[in-house]
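Query structure, 125 tokens:
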């Protein structure tokens, strides 16, 4: 297919991101707040996890020649809606007033129970 994959291989059966062959669309897989060793960053802290996630998404987009301002859609999965304000605050800081389309889904758990939020993104370059 000739697509470009983003991020370093993790041994998992997915890519952190994919750029379609024409280079205009970038799909970022669900991103969580884990370090390179698989340890959860800031357990219980929605705001800190959200900051880490958007920093990681930004790194992946840079690989594709894009930035956070190229994001047109995010989908967010939240395990504790009572902490949603922390995510919303960070999202507002990241996107200013140029918000992408967005959906938020309440879920019972993510890949590790200490994770509170996961974000996937679509960007147009």
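Result returned for the query:
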């Amino acid at each position: 297919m000739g697509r470009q994959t983003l991020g370093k291989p993790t041994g998992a059966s997915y890519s952190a991101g994919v750029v379609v062959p024409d280079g205009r669309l970038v799909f970022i897989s669900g991103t969580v707040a884990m370090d390179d060793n698989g340890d959860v960053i800031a357990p219980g802290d929605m705001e800190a996890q959200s900051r880490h996630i958007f920093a990681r998404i930004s790194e992946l987009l840079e690989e594709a020649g894009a930035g956070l301002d190229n994001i047109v859609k995010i989908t967010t999965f939240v395990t504790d809606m009572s902490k949603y304000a922390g995510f919303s605050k960070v999202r507002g800081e990241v996107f200013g007033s140029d918000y992408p389309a967005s959906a938020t889904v309440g879920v019972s758990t993510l890949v590790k129970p200490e994770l509170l939020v996961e974000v996937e993104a679509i960007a147009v370059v």
